[in-house]
Design brief:
Layout (H helix, E strand, L loop, with lengths): L2 H19 L5 H12 L7 H21 L2 E5 L5 E7 L2 E3 L11 E2 L2 E2 L10 H19 L2 H7 L5 H18 L24 E4 L3 E5 L4
Antiparallel strand pairs: 1-2, 2-3, 2-7, 3-5, 4-5, 6-7
Family: Belongs to the plant DMP1 protein family.
Keywords: Membrane, Transmembrane, Transmembrane helix
Membrane topology: Multi-pass membrane protein
């Protein structure tokens, strides 16, 4: 292998690692585990291809959906996860919670931070694009669907997608801290600990 080819392959591996970091936690790792089984480790028939395609589709939807979710830390220390809408952050547990800036199931505070915006759709598109590149270039998937694909395509496609994301990212607002994305430590009070569920995180604070 020539030095140029080695450099190209190294860059593409670095980009793949960076792309996996923008996906919901564990999404790509889960796919890697499932892909080995669903493709029969690359030796797949028609049924295996259909099952793998369904898995890719489901996880792509999860990646897109997570871009439309966010989290809100209440004054009590409880972290609420919800879906961003034109009316604010939607979470059925807001109803009757007595929290400030809550109207029915919507949290309307945050100066519009939790309102649905154009860049949510952009981020969802980029997230799905990143996941598709990662999943379709996974070794057993390549062997299953297109065993004779040229190495130049394998090496250049991640670079192209990575370049698109790098161009768009500087103009995007801060990423949301929704499902599958870590919440900054500063967002959680040091005096409380939270255990999360799908739509609500209940925290228990113990005092000594």
């Amino acid at each position: 292998m020539s030095r140029t080819a080695e450099n190209s392959q190294g860059k593409s591996t670095d980009i793949l690692t960076q792309l996996s970091n923008i996906l919901p936690t564990g999404t790509f790792m889960l796919f890697q585990a499932l892909a080995t089984l669903s493709t029969n480790d690359g030796h797949c028939g028609h049924t295996d291809k259909v099952v793998t395609g369904v898995i890719i589709g489901i996880l792509s939807v999860i990646c897109a959906f997570s871009c439309f979710t966010d989290s809100y830390k209440a004054p009590t220390g409880v972290v609420y996860y919800g879906v961003v809408t034109t009316q604010g952050l939607w979470n059925p547990f807001f109803v009757g919670s007595g929290l400030p800036d809550v109207t029915g199931p919507f949290y309307t505070g945050g100066n519009g931070k939790y309102n649905l915006r154009f860049y949510d759709f952009v981020n969802a598109s980029l997230s799905v694009m990143a996941f598709l590149v990662l999943s379709l270039l996974t070794a057993p998937v390549k062997t299953c669907y297109y065993p004779h694909i040229r190495s130049a395509v394998v090496n250049s496609l991640p670079l192209l997608v990575g370049a698109i994301i790098m161009i768009v990212s500087p103009y995007a607002p801060p990423a949301r801290n929704g499902f599958g994305h870590a919440i900054p430590e500063s967002a959680t009070p040091a005096s409380s600990s939270a255990t999360t569920s799908l739509l609500r995180s209940s925290s228990t604070t113990s005092t000594t």
